[in-house]
Design brief:
Helix content: 55-70%
Distance between the termini: 63 Å
Largest sheet: none
Number of helices: 5
Shape: globular
């Protein structure tokens, strides 16, 4: 029933690492797409992070800063604790998810000179 070969152990270790990675990415996607901000003075819509992604695409914004208070307000305590416990990993995960979700530019973008 159980195997002790190195290949089987390595495969099992990889399988256990993949699930949390994909789960974390799905939680990040949900947060970025669904978080609603009450700050209507700074953002044209209530979807703060969707708007920020559009601004990055349009090159009006060069930094994408996620407020941990927003994550707490979103109500995903597991995600908040995971970010606090392993910030570097989550910086990379957020960057990957943002690259996947980032829309095409909606305004003319000046070429770099």
């Amino acid at each position: 029933l159980f195997s002790n070969s190195r290949e089987d152990l390595a495969a099992a270790a990889m399988a256990t690492k993949v699930a949390p990675y994909s789960e974390d990415k799905e939680k990040i996607k949900s947060f970025l797409q669904e978080f609603i901000s009450n700050d209507t003075l700074q953002y044209a819509t209530q979807y703060k992070y969707l708007e920020m992604m559009q601004s990055v695409s349009n090159r009006r914004l060069s930094q994408f800063i996620v407020d941990l208070d927003d994550v707490a307000e979103f109500g995903d305590v597991d995600l908040l604790n995971s970010i606090a416990g392993n910030t570097r990993r989550f910086q990379l995960l957020f960057a990957e998810v943002i690259d996947e979700l980032k829309p095409e530019p909606s305004a003319a973008v000046a070429e770099d000179t």
